[in-house]
Amino acid sequence: MQLQLEKRLHPSRLMLFIVPIGAVIMTMVLGAIIFTILGFNGLSAVREIFLTPIINPLKWQDLAVKAAPLIIIGVGLSIGYRANVWNIGAEGQYIVGGLAATAIALITYEMSGWWILPLMAIGGIFGGMVWVFIPALLRTKLKVNEILTSLMLTYVAVNLLNYLVFGPWKSPFAFGQPQTILFNEWQTLPYIIEGTIVQAGAPIAIIIALLAWLLMSRSLFGFQIKTVGSAPNAARYGGFSENKTIWLTLLISGGLAGLAGMLEVAGPFGRMVPQFPTGYGFTAIIVAFLGRLHPIGVLFAGIILAISFVGGEVAQTTIALPNAAVGLFQALMLFLLLAGDVLVHYKIKPIRINRVDKGQMGAKKQEEII
Amino acid sequence: MNIDLTIAIIITMVGASTPLLLAALGELVVEKSGVLNLGVEGMMLTGAVVGFAVAYSSSNAWLGILAAAFAGAAVSMIFAFLTLTLSANQVATGLALTIFGAGFSSLFGQPYTGKPIEIFGSIFPPFLRDHPILRVFFDYSPLVYFSLIMVFIVWWFLYKTRAGLILRAVGENDISAHSIGYSVITIRYGAVGFGGMMAGIGGACFPLILTPQWVEGLTGGRGWIALALLVFSAWKPARLFLGAYLFGLIATMEVYAKAAGGIFKILPSELWASLPYLATIIVLVIFSLRHKASSSAPACLGKPFIATN
User: Do A331 and B273 touch (CB under 8 A)?
Assistant: First the structure.
């Protein structure tokens, strides 16, 4: 018996919820099998990566710290992906946002006041927007593909970071280490819960996800984005400007990635170092997809990916699993999610062999689906 | 400029261009069939780590290259299954493939970090490859000649054979190709597999012929530049060749700028390192100024196809 795909009239809402959960579960099952074949202890790997961070309350604060930047960047990316605008250079925008915040911290180093942190946040957002400005300009004016330009600029951002921390920004007190001076208390995020490492990034991430949810579900702008993405012709007919959508979605995603950069440099890092690019910008792509490009979904997906990061560190110390294994688990999760998505948009039907309607020869091309 | 330096620059340029050319030629065939595989970087990394591991363990570079080709094709089949059989979004799946390749290569490369390997250099006799002038023709790895032959073979296949015509037809109008009896999906599977093979070999160039060691993330975005090259070349093999060598030259400038001194010394080395990426953006801009609409791209690029009998 052969199987055939038949496009659903509407994406299945049930599948929309089941597929991501199924993908996470299948990642654990397949991950255990694959890592056992590769000569690791597959079952303990899955246990340490996916379960220990949830079961052990001591790890919860780490989850909050890791999830915050993933959620903030993921929310921004998901808004763009909804409109078929593919910013994949969030890592670069995150770096430049961090650099812009660092610049403000270096300028205000001798000063004090509550206004410094908000100024750094604005700087971070602005930095991220500057870095996405070029892809946005080229896409809207010249139809240059934003995928390639935003990614290329990520490599440039890494070089810019290296130039600054190895050169003009290098701290004179760091014994030759390439890093800036340590930020002062007015330039560092406060701890929101006494005795933990949770800083302001976590509540900000939740607020941003909620605001994005309101924006996407209650505003005309949200409707416009969804229409441009799912029915470009209808959007054009309805008078929604495609270029305006591209500008807004790219600036939002760049700005949020920049804000995440500021929250990291003023938070866990406390100074700028060459190790600042940790790959959050790339992992946030998985977060956006796993969260179904929905702000609340992204919130949960950010926590799941944070679990895998924290769990990866646990597995490194407890069962000596190389940290890179986490990347493989995350990629596997995205593959399974994309594979499962077929169930959202298509019905799988057996082909009946003795069909009579030979007149139906030919093929029906499907609209691009997300 | 003295002749020795010129020859040294040419040889570095050719080496730097080769992985780019191989990967881009593979992706050319993929995109001509109407499929957009953004996972070139991931397939290159996979080919690089597998190629290095096999070449290191067997002390045989040829085996390493063969394994790299196989590994590249194997991971490309994940992409093919998801996008062609399950109609998954090609952009998202390509990104997933790149993330996968990065994770896979970093995990499997770890035990090989710092291990030395003999460079897979020229196989010509010493009087040719060490000759001060003639070495500009003979002091290259066999992979360099392979990449040049492949430029011709890919051109010949796409434009001079019936199979190539069918492949292009599938990329330009999948519905018509299907209705006259060609299996769109099967042809695209083949194209994606070829692209994976070429990306795998291209990736293996890095640890086997450029820097004879394993370094994490050693492809440095070359897979993405290969994708940009296709746009730049308007999907034409000969222009692809020119584009790859232009980028090789730009990448070479970084190496020689440090040594040259003078005006080159004033600019920070990070700026030279950024040059290939900035040049990619500039090239994309120049192309779009010349061709207002991207009419040279295959018409069905990136769109899923579902046959209804």
Answer: no
The beta-carbon neighbor of A365 closest among B38, B103, B174 is: B174
Q: Structural domain of residue A336, as residue ranges?
A: 7-348
Which range (A295-309, B18-32, B42-56, B121-135) has the least confidence?
Answer: B121-135
Helix (H) or strand (E) holding B160: helix B142-160
For chain A, say whether B186 makes contact (Cβ under 8 Å). no
pLDDT digits (tens, 9 = 90+) for A235-281: 888 778 888 999 999 999 999 999 999 999 999 999 999 999 988 99
* Residues written for chain A: 370
What ipTM goes with this model? 0.89
The verdict on a CB contact (< 8 Å) between B231 and A361 is: no
In chain B, helix, strand, coil percent, each to 5?
Answer: 75, 0, 25
Strands (E), chain A: 3-7, 346-350, 364-365
Chains A, B: CB pairs < 8 Å:
171
* B81-98 pLDDT, tens digit each: 999 999 888 988 999 999
Pair of tokens at residue A316: 């490194």
CA distances in angstroms from B36 to A34, B191, B223, listed in the order given: 28, 11, 13
CATH number (domain holding residue B65): 1.10.3470
How far from chain centre, in Å, is Cα A96?
16
Domain that holds residue B243: 3-290
CA distance linking residue B197 with residue B195, whole number of Å: 5
What helix, strand, coil percent values describe chain A, rounded to 5? 70, 5, 25
Dihedral pair phi/psi, residue A325, rounded to 5°: -60, -30
**Total of domains in chain B:** 1
Which chain A residue lies closest to B293 (C-alpha atoms)? A143
| DSSP E strand stretches across chain B | 305-306
* In-domain check, residue A22: yes
- Assess contact for A73 and A67: CB atoms under 8 A: no
Q: Which of A143, A327, A362 sits opposite B175 (nearest CB)?
A: A362
Contact B278 A162 (CB under 8 A): no
Nearest CA in chain B to A347: B86
End-to-end, the C-alpha distance of chain A in Å comes to 29
- Cα–Cα distance between A105 and A120 in angstroms, integer? 7
**CATH code of the domain containing A321:** 1.10.3470
Q: Which residue of A has its CA nearest to B290?
A: A142
Beta carbons of B87 and A366 less than 8 Å apart: yes
Contacts of B270 in chain A (CB under 8 A): 159-160, 162-163
Q: Does B91 touch chain A (CB under 8 A)?
A: yes
Q: What is the DSSP letter of A366?
A: P
| Closest residue, chain B, to A134 (C-alpha) | B281
